[in-house]
Amino acid sequence: MRRLSDIVLHQQPLTMSRTATVLEACREMAERQVGSVLITDDAGRLLGIFTGRDAVSRVLATGRDGRTMPLGEAMTRNPETMTPDHTALDALRLMWDGGFRHIPLIKAGRVVGVVSRGDFKGIEHQYHQNERELWEHLR
To answer: Mean pLDDT of successive 10-residue segments in the chain (139 residues)?
Structure first.
């Protein structure tokens, strides 16, 4: 099973400050073709995550103006994280259990990457599916 470090080996995750606007974040996400922005402080520590889902539910659906709304108000604070030493299956379990699609990876207090459901191969999804079916059968 692949380690998350293998998936983010040469990744440079999209990070922004909490004062950047939602519009700036959405434009960067579109340009880089990514589904999330990691919000960090000046020391590179994770403060939150902003995803397309957040843009819909916390900005558009509430009638807020993304041109002026800061990411700090739209982000998910204190998201679940993992280290790069975890496996793909560990990440898929956490995503399933938590109902989200992105997991920031932290090493020594710093952001080193982010994985999303689309980063995993079919075999990894199959392992997770088999495991879930086994647990359902055991209930």
So the answer is: 86 95 97 96 95 95 96 96 93 91 94 89 65 68
Buried b (16+ CB within 10 A) or exposed e, 50-77: bbbebbeebbeeeeeebeebbbeebbbe
Whole-structure pTM value: 0.85
CB atoms within 10 A of CB 99: 6
What interhelical angle do 122-138 and 88-98 show, nearest 10? Answer: 60
What domains can you pick out in the chain, each with its CATH number?
4-138 (3.10.580.10)
Tokens of 1: 């099973």
DSSP assignment of 97-129, as one string?
HHT-SEEEEEETTEEEEEEEGGGS-HHHHHHHH
Contact predicate 95/103, CB 8 Å: yes
